[in-house]
Amino acid sequence: MEIKNKPEILAPVGHYEGLAAVIKAGADAIYMGVGKINQRALKTTFTLEDVKEIRKITQDAGVKQYITLNSIVFEDDLPYIEETLDALKEIGVDAVIGWDMAVLTGAIGRGIETHLSTMASVSNSQAAKFYEKMGVKRIVPAREVKLEGLKEIKKKTNLEIEIFVHGAMCMAVSGRCFLSHDVFEKSGNRGECYQVCRHEFDVKIVSKNTGTEFYLGSDYVLSARDLVTINFVDQLMWADSWKIEGRNKNPDYAYFSVKAYKEARDRILNGEWDTKGWKDLLDMLERVYHREWDNGFYFGEALFGINKSIAKEKKVYVGEVIKFYPRISVAEVRIVDNPIKIGDTIHIIGKKTGLVRQKVKSMQV
Fold first, then answer.
1. How far apart are CA 213 and CA 179, in angstroms?
2. 10 CB neighbour count, 10 Å cutoff
3. Are residues 191 and 157 in the same domain?
């Protein structure tokens, strides 16, 4: 059967090293935050000057650039939103991702392509049509919507549909959690999530009558598993964009995630999916840190599991590259921690190199 649709591979970017990595891996578009109004504000350090610089880099690479303004907007944030949208319009970014009406109306009014964040919790076609009439071009439906429901929204609207295909998941509905604010006074709805759910908890049963406690043990009872769709991604070819979560992740995570899903898409388009399959691509994804895999809500399955890495390779810090001699392809490395030996696989990560993965074939001490 001929497949005409070619989903966009949308990659997360939280630093320049990650940017170089996902471009090298073949991403079609990136999404990144700027300033304080984004869901990764706690760790995002990008400024408007960075957005401008990255715009040049992405244009040269033929990659689209989307900016997230997707956290709660309070009254005293409005001047900041106006100034930021004016700057983004001047820079010429490809789209703004948001869900607060101040962001949506501001972006649409300026003629900036506008995408609706999953934070809006759109879970049916009627809600989608509301935003479509407003002028939104693309929506990221609520993660809780099953596969058939997503396809119905696509069928009944003229909107582009962006769906998550890989990455961490939140235990709260569409990410609207109050645990971090309650425990640390840092709001996850303002991009400052301290990930309370990822901690190990002591589980007890307490009698209301006597106060007697029965200790059941320790477990990661609130920690959602990681989403993976590589095993059924051929059923997602109808979507306009495949989104990979992970702006706070390391460059190797972003690189292998983009590379795996791009290869999967290309195999499907080239009619090679039935012969080559996906298991080697899952092996690629399992090279880096991840929790127990889950297919999310696509088939209504469970979300929760252990908050431990089950990656097939263990990554440790070794040191830093002091000098590189390009003519002879030799690097001088200062060993800071953990020795290396011939045969080890090393990752070299940098703002320009992104990720270079290779085996150590020879070395001099």
1. 24
2. 26
3. no
